[in-house]
Amino acid sequence: LTCMEFSAWRISPRLDTWEYCQLGGFLPSSPITVSESRSSSQVAGEKSVADVTVLLKQVVHYLQRLLGTVLESWDSMNDFAKLGNARPSHTPKSCPISHEYSITDQVLGLGINGKVVECFHRETGAKYALKVLRDSVKARREVNLHWRASNCKHIVSIVDVFENVYASNRCLLVVMECMEGGELFQRIQDRAEGAFTEREAAEIVRDICMAVAHLHRMDIAHRDLKPENLLYSKADATGVLKLTDFGFAKETTSFNSLQTPCYTPYYVAPEVLGPERYDKSCDMWSLGVIMYILLCGFPPFYSNHGLAISPGMKKRIRAGQYDFPNPEWKNVSQDAKDLIRGLLRTDPTQRLNIEEVLANKWIAKYTEVPQTPLHSIRILREEGDQWPDVQEEMTQALATMRVDYDTIQLKKLADTNNRLLTKRRQQAPHN
């Protein structure tokens, strides 16, 4: 290319040359200098220094837009590059939290394992959210996993951790960024004007995928991915969607082959034996449910906006009983429906993993997703009184899908009555 084109101007790479062409004019085959004498047969119009000034302003504006696009793409690439990089482990502070923060009685929310209250940094006055957990092995696991994962843009960040006596109990006090933008679906429901489009839904799902990918690359399964755990950092348009509450989060790489949940580790279904694949697939199922609700306003395990299609959540999930009814789904793209089908497969080993979802064009090229207006806002508003029931159903569904090895009785191989192992013991040479 010998020049860069925009509008009616064509700018040569040389700073002392420029080209201009009006509609119907004739553009020279080679650049010409401003000071060069030109004939009317060669150039469409004589341009003054003022024209060049206008041209340069247009160039600057164009380059600013181009730079903004490049920086935005760079930030996105940088976010992807950081996925899976854990923060170093953190040792809780033993000094009283009151030395650094003032705590109010304002309750901001309730997590699985503790309440969240408002607090302020004494020196800066910055507002934070304080989560109070009874000190235990499980609580320390939650805090450790959340701390290590909280360097991701789409995961709520932990600022400080203290181990103090609070309300006469030994507690972990977790200082986190304050999420002031509200829950995901409440924010959509509260939109004052404008349609909610499929492209916007794709961008939201992509943001959630970034959080899930960060965790899964660290071999952490969140296991409680649901709408109320997806919060916006701010109430205005600059708010970032973030995942919180690691009360059920668990590392998925370790498995001690010398003990197993009432099975020997040699011949057992993957979803029973392998927490890595099964627990992560639980997150993928949740992602599919959230995506479904975003696109229509009601969950896949219901029909007619709240009427159960079978008696019991577990049965509905296992049977894969959902469809894409009209009119809500009539104009939603086939790409979106296909992605949901891949996420809601009944066999957890066959569900899409997070890398496959990130590579899916509905996510990877979300800016090209059609801006089709969705029915989501209308349905969420009309069925607002039933939303707590939907949340409870999803909570119960996640509970049935989790394989929590902390609560399952483990049996040592020496105590196992498996016939194969008994035969092998009898055949083994004795010392």
UniProtKB/TrEMBL annotation:
Keywords: ATP-binding, Kinase, Nucleotide-binding, Phosphoprotein, Serine/threonine-protein kinase, Transferase. Residues 102-363 form the Protein kinase domain. GO terms for biological process: regulation of cell size. GO terms for molecular function: ATP binding; protein serine/threonine kinase activity. ATP binds at K131. Signal peptide: none annotated. Its EC number is 2.7.11.1. It holds the Pfam family Pkinase. SUPFAM superfamilies: Protein kinase-like (PK-like). It catalyses: L-threonyl-[protein] + ATP = O-phospho-L-threonyl-[protein] + ADP + H(+); L-seryl-[protein] + ATP = O-phospho-L-seryl-[protein] + ADP + H(+). Belongs to the protein kinase superfamily. CAMK Ser/Thr protein kinase family. This is non-specific serine/threonine protein kinase. It comes from Ornithodoros turicata.
